[in-house]
Amino acid sequence: GSTTACFEPSLDYCVVKIPRWDLAKFARVCSKIGSSMKSVGEVMSIGRSFEEAFQKALRMVDENVKGFDPSLQPVCEDGLKEPTDKRTFVLAAALAAGYSIDKLYELTKIDRWFLHKLKNLIELQQTLESLGQGMLSRELLVQAKQLGFCDTQIASFVKSTEIAVRKFREEAKVLPFVKQIDTVAAEWPAVTNYLYLTYNASAHDVVFGGGSTMV
């Protein structure tokens, strides 16, 4: 069908864009981020929660990063005060070390809404790490996937393997759903929608029939 320009689409998705810095490739460059243009590109991820989209974006911008990982950088208050290309992971380390939201707000001036969302990721990671081997429940697995954790991350938290976690997830029917975004703001029929995968849904927006050709 088609929709009219007066139709207001529902904003049931979240988009996160993260610049790619690659500052280490440039000689004598300062790692502090300000108003000058230093990024060499950016990624854009789509999810149905900030946490999900944020962790997707972190994996997209650096293939060696699995998500919001507190082990990548040490806790450093100077690293929290100064915006750099590494501050995201210094913030993860600080949350894992028990820094309060108020303390982090004083140091970073990052809005508390974002700090609470990032704290959700660290708290769930710590919950998963406290489980005994083989104690991962379907409920916790669903919660982890809805917050954007990949199978590799979950496996490392519960002392298992990526293959074992994926096998358990598929057997438990914890699978992503295909959702779509109207990219033309309903001005005319949308035929080239953005498609994205999410675990924060209960049905597909698009059904792929048989006979497709894999490119």
UniProtKB/TrEMBL annotation:
Keywords: ATP-binding, Ligase, Nucleotide-binding. Gene3D superfamilies: ATP-grasp fold, B domain, Carbamoyl-phosphate synthetase, large subunit oligomerisation domain. Residues 76-199 form the Carbamoyl-phosphate synthetase large subunit oligomerisation domain. GO terms for biological process: 'de novo' pyrimidine nucleobase biosynthetic process; citrulline biosynthetic process; glutamine metabolic process; UTP biosynthetic process. InterPro entries: CarbamoylP_synth_lsu_oligo_sf (IPR036897), CPSase_lsu_oligo (IPR005480). It holds the Pfam family CPSase_L_D3. GO terms for molecular function: aspartate carbamoyltransferase activity; ATP binding; carbamoyl-phosphate synthase (glutamine-hydrolyzing) activity; dihydroorotase activity. It comes from the Eukaryota. GO terms for cellular component: cytosol. This is CAD protein. It comes from Scirtothrips dorsalis (Chilli thrips). The gene is CAD.
